[in-house]
Amino acid sequence: MDEFDYVVIGGGSAGSAVTGRLAEDGRSSVCLLEAGGRNNGVRVRTPGLFPFLPESANYKFETVPQKGLNGRIGYQPRGRGLGGSSAINAMVYIRGNAWDYDNWAGALGCDGWAYDDVLPYFKQSEGNVRGGDDFHGGDGPLGVADQLWPNPTSKAFVESAASLQLTRNDDFNDGSQAGFGIYQVTQRDGERCTASRAYVEPLRGRANLDIRTGALVEKLVIENGRVTGVAIQRGGKSEIVRARHGVVLSAGAFNSPQILMLSGIGPGEHLSEHGIDVALDKPSVGNDLQDHIDYVSGWGTASTDPIGDSLTGTWRMAKAIIEHRFKKTGIMTTPYAEAGGFWSVMPDAPAPDVQWHFVPAVLEDHGREKVKGHGFSLHACVLRPESRGTVRLNTNAAGDAPRIDPNFLDDERDLAVLRAGIRLSHRIAEAPPLADYAPTDRHPFDFNDDAALNAMIRQRADTVYHPVGTCRMGSDDASVVDTKLKARGIEGLWIADASVMPKIVSGNTNAPSIMIGERCAEFVKADL
After folding, report:
1. Using an 8 Å Cβ cutoff, are 524 and 22 in contact?
2. What is the pTM of this model?
């Protein structure tokens, strides 16, 4: 048996931040347990090789059939290995809207989580190439950069939005989120900056940090109402890793509730059905699943300016790989989701309610369907969905995927917001200079027919990869963790990842997850 001051489960966005902050001063011994590998190969480091990431870096989860999506089974990619989903995402650096955090602190009872409370931790984590100011950090561990080579069509998208009198925005994280522009990305010197590269790798080799990859967590070890360690499988053997002061669970919105349930913490009746002894009957574990439902509009172009599958496109990308190998510049620095924006499409929205991601390539079925030729795609996602889903166990085996039910479009309000967002997508694509590419709509519909658009949405919509909420934070007894991220009803356990969000943020979830990890490390240290 090994013993450490702290054990962290999961080396993803939040887990890496927790690990780095707990271990950086050398005073505490920390063991990081990660089921996947190191994720430091060239395919992970090179942004433009995003479509060719190693299979081992992605859990490739699927949902149960979604009644709101015509019974389709949705795709839920999740990062596996150090860096977690920050190793396989589109690197977009977005924090969400200030209103989100003020709403957490106010209406949702999460005192201490207002925007003014969380801003210092965003700044603390951020190493922005633009330098530090009232809203940004210039010397934090997470590299945040302007894109080195945005595609001409991405620039045209921003200009087309401006031609419709939609505000131009060069900084979505300075408190004024509304508008359209080119995204900043989590890159450093032309390479992907995962949370692990930011927080964990710089500490590798220190005597007080033990990084264990290939470590599948079976369950938490609970003794007399306290989590005292973690049972794992590694190298074909079972081991127990002990924690003197506590365990931080950072396995993500799907795996964190799964690990809790495998440990006997969750809905008692459900656990008993799977033959698991109930240590703590906590019905809210695995509830409140929220995700950004997303629709991708696509257009073909005769122009080869966009990234595409053709002789010209292939030759250009081959040269770009060589350029990136030696200079870390050029097309292969693309995050693919190069541009986008935020706008309110409903009159009663307290903040922008739709986000767009512009991709200078044609995407079908999450990029899994190969498309010949060139073109561009425009995602529109509902930022604050009303639909709620669940995560449950499929089996009581740690290596099996959990049962994921986002319950997409269960609430008709989400459908109305998405319709409006898609309509604006098409208005932008039909405005110059994007319209000068003479784009051909790959999925045409009648703009005036709600029923036809609803049918198209149910046929084609899916996640934009932002699941949250399954280990909800709150001040009420039903919440899974309190406002210091400490588990309710059990000692020695904190949870730090997107699962603790009481309501999904209005934007990409990587940066907020890292902020949560930063805060959790502080809470854990203060609890000694």
Report:
1. yes
2. 0.98
Q: Which is nearest to 389 in space by CA: 490, 466, 461?
A: 466
Q: Does the bond joining 433 to the residue before it have cis omega, within 30 degrees of 0?
A: yes
Q: Which of 143, 70, 526, 55 is nearest to 335 (CA)?
A: 143
- Give start and end residues of each alpha helix (H) in 42-151: 42-45, 98-105, 115-125
Q: What are phi and psi of 517, to 5 degrees?
A: -65, -40
CATH of 1-62+78-143+192-288+395-401+467-528, one of 3.50.50.60, 2.120.10.30, 3.40.920.10, 3.30.470.20: 3.50.50.60
Q: 3-state class of 65 per DSSP? A: strand
Residues 431-480 have pLDDT tens digits of 999 999 999 999 998 988 999 999 999 999 999 999 999 999 999 999 99
Closest CA relative to residue 333, chosen from 487, 200, 191, 528: 191
Distance CA 297, CA 426 (A): 8
Return the structure tokens found at 179. 């508008």
In 74-229, which residue ranges form alpha helices assigned H by DSSP?
98-105, 115-125, 152-163, 195-199
Q: Which sequence positions are flagged as catalytic?
A: 466
